[in-house]
Batch of 2 targets.
Target 1
Amino acid sequence: MAAPLLELERLSVVYEPAILAVEDVSFSIWKGEIVALLGANGAGKTSLLRAISNLLRAKRGRLSKGHIIYDGQRVERVPTHRLVETGLVQVLEGRHCFLFLTVEENLLTGALGRRSSRGDAKDDLGRVYEVFPSLKAKAKQPAGLLSGGQQQMLAIGRALMARPNLLLLDEPSMGLAPLLAAEIFETLAKLNRDDGLTILLAEQNAASALHYASRAFVLENGRLASGGPTADLLARDDILSAYLGLVSEKIVETASI
Amino acid sequence: MDWSFLIGVVISGLLAGVMYSLVAIGFVLIYKTSGVLNFAQGSMLLFAALTFVSLHEEGLPFWIAFVLTLAIMVLLGVLIEKIVLRPLINQPPITLFMATLGLSYIIEGGAQFVWGTQVHQLDLGIADVPLPLNSILISQFDIFCAGVAGAIVAVLGVVLQYTRVGLAFRAAAFDQYAALNTGLRLPRIWAITWGVAGFIALVGGLLWGARTGVQFSLSLVVLKSLPVLVVGGFDSIIGAIVGGLLVGLTETLMEVYVGPFIGGGIDQWIAYALALAFLLIKPTGLFGQRSVERV
Ligand SMILES: Nc1ncnc2c1ncn2[C@@H]1O[C@H](COP(=O)(O)OP(=O)(O)OP(=O)(O)O)[C@@H](O)[C@H]1O
Ligand SMILES: [Mg+2]
């Protein structure tokens, strides 16, 4: 088997003064996969994604242990903007759009991060508008006027502008109506299928995430509680009810839609 | 009521206000990108004026002295950001403020050490004589200052709105964490901002210096621009401009129409009274948005 695109080796995350948010987490992601990262409030999903994108310092935290290997390179000391340049891009929890900037300007910041040429940025803009047509109609409006769902699309679009190889998404369905969330998951699945975009998806919405992911990992209190192919997880009632707050029939129902 | 006199007072008030705006813009730029209330802005202004005058007095031609001083100011700004503020990243705002307060004394002391303490005259070659416009008298020098400040604001506006650097600045000013995550190079944005603040300090220093003489009290214009920031909002360039104009106007109007009845000296405190009123009514200032969260 080829080398993984991302390897996490025994990661621990600590926030000041001494809050252990993630402890000894290891797993790998291969190119072309959609992997779900599940867990309840405070389980450590966001902290783990921050660790991967080297954003912990900005939140008064740090990687206290472990290695991160992306595309064959150790990257735990590589600054975020370098990671973005090499295609490791994150869509933050809570969207974090630049609300005073127009939709198009928001997207262009993604091109700035990648240091794309003007020509490339223009091409990418066209592509993002194809993926999210509703953004095109609002191109010249401030992002602050968008609905929650459109802001989520904008945040994803901004990340796409950086031409990601590995996209980390932190609860993209948070606060969205089920239909809208489904639309966003479908778009991600399509990007994965058509462009081979590798995706690590942190979600509390376990049903949807499991529906789209090929493998999933479950965090509990910062530790990896279980993980494996989604089919295996879905077959285990103990995991479904203990960690994911799901009853198996419900999953089967959702998964068959 | 003498209308042409009133109009003259209003115009010279607004023109005086432009000078406040100029200093305040230097503040706002830094506050917006890094959340630091840079108390050293006044010392930077003094340092710039003093360096320029001294180089000029050494016999360097105007433009060479100007460019040289500009280079020194940009370097100073970048160094402050790198050496003092970067290591203090993630510290509470009060720590950063204290750091810039300390810095202002170091810069002033340094300027004193290098250039001495005497008062220098600075002649920009624009006579400070009243220019009669119909029957209204307006200082030619005030108009020149307003023109320079206006030009700077216009250029800044265009750069912010239409260039990549400007886009990165606006993004980082709104949400540093998101900017970091998007891959924007915050340190570079900070360095550029401090460089521009250095340039504005130089221009402000020359204009103020030409008016009052280059001396150590020049760094006190920082105290004049605090009320401007309170009125306009700490994080708004438009606010700095409007706040400056309002403060200048209020000062001049009060000085002319109220001052005689209460024995003068009103310009010493009226700006603060205005600022206080704003704090009570609209704490974010006219155009202020929100407090900046620092990465
Ligand atoms: N900046 C911070 N400083 C201190 N502790 C933090 C910080 N951010 C998160 N934590 C703590 O770390 C733990 C993990 O939080 P994290 O945000 O990673 O969980 P999560 O799985 O993303 O939760 P949610 O689903 O609510 O987003 C929690 O106990 C949280 O309180
Ligand atoms: Mg989270």
Target 2
Amino acid sequence: MARFKVRSLQFALLLTVLLGWELSVRLGWVDAFFFSRPSDIAARIYEWFVSGEVYRHLWITLLETVLAFLSGTLAGVALGLWLALSPTAAAVLDPFLKALNSVPRVILAPIFTLWFGLGIASKVALGFTLVFFVAFFNTYQGIREVSPVILANARMLGASGSQLLRHVYLPSATSWILSSLRTSVGFAVIGAVVGEYLGASAGLGYVISQAEGVFDTTSVFAGIVVLAVFVVLLDVAVNLVERRLLVWRPEPGQEGGTV
Amino acid sequence: MQDCEKTTPAVELRGVTQRFGDYTAVQGVNLVLTAGEFVAVVGPTGCGKSTLLNVIAGLRPPAAGEVRVFGRLLTGLNRRAGYLFQQDALLPWKTALENAALGLTFAGVPRAEAYERAAAWLAKVGLAGFGDRYPHQLSGGMRKRVALAQVLIMDPKILLMDEPFSALDVQTRQLMENELLRLWEEDQKSVLFVTHDLEEAIALADRVVVMSAGPASRPIGEFPVPLERPRDVTEVRLTEEFLGVHREIWSLLREEVMRAHGQV
Ligand SMILES: Nc1ncnc2c1ncn2[C@@H]1O[C@H](COP(=O)(O)OP(=O)(O)O)[C@@H](O)[C@H]1O
Ligand SMILES: [Mg+2]
């Protein structure tokens, strides 16, 4: 019942904002040239999907996102594992990693376009630089934070080095990596869209940037709405994966008893 | 060889000292655990009981002195010992069954056989039917039972137990104590049982060792417990002999507990 109430309120809020927007434009309080109109935006989105021209862009953005996410996560986990288990390497590389991570990624976009061209590769590279550090820091942290008692217990039970990695270190890091999945996916999208925005021939970022170029605010807003829905759907997918892989974790507030 | 194992102590500490930086936790500890014996170590909190067990387990080599296990100088991990830790040590991402089978898995026992034996051990500690629960779905007492099964399934000759039942309520605790005695009597392992609860120590052990308050803690008294076996830990507490031993040991332990408090 409470859930239904929340949903109704959310719906009412959305409706109020959209109606207010629509009316403000229709009554001439704000200029349609700058703000467009919800009804026009809806019509534009409908057009895109009926004509089918938006699918190509969605597909490109999705592909870039997935590739950036997978490559960044894989590389980040590998480096995280290595550094967490090799303190010397960690000490040596620490300042470099911090310096690299502090570079605002947008600055890299033109260079990547120069190196990898206007196609998918430069966007994947941009997303990679974002996802990589999230995966790296979480893996590193996850492995460093393995409880010493759990580790000692596994060793007393006869675990070899590789068994410790497989049964203790990796599962521990996995929970960290998975809980950062949402951030990673978000970053992968940002990498793809910002890359497209700054120079591409396809993708949602490209659509928005083209529309801005001709002051077509309706298409700009339509692009933003499609992008937002796209991210929400990815988020739902991530949620499902996370739930499946973390069955062993207590729900917040549902800790085991003490008796 | 067999005879030799019977007469040489399971564990022997000679002049063991352990430091953490400048802090000397235990100093010059001599201690013998005879094969098949159940020894309890009591002492005020923070005196170095866990530190000693870690040394015997080989998790942290002593700063000075030596540890002998069945006569052999200990280097590296103690492969003859099972260790029941004071804190939760189960893998949270494995079920009770997988946790109980962990040591067998590490030893390369085929999965089907490992799980079958683990299920049998879970039943033995009263957890039949709980095999597919994750640790967070179990109560503290149940988690301790899984940990006990996890250690005992490896059939260690030496059992190191660090305040294993201190977090449990009185009923569960006495249940587990009786269970432990039953399991121990089945195949006479050598048990070193650490606790800060003197009553528990007397109820369980053949011999009680009292540690002084830290720093530089060491054993300052050893008391045989002349109580009949098999025992029921609840009933044995009501006997005259129990109270006699308790009075005797407490007069010594009391001072140390007071000293430990005075230093805080
Ligand atoms: N890893 C450690 N680093 C520094 N000090 C420690 C460490 N482990 C134990 N100590 C200190 O050594 C003393 C003995 O600790 P411990 O063996 O855990 O006591 P007990 O188990 O008897 O309560 C304590 O004063 C504790 O603070
Ligand atoms: Mg302790």
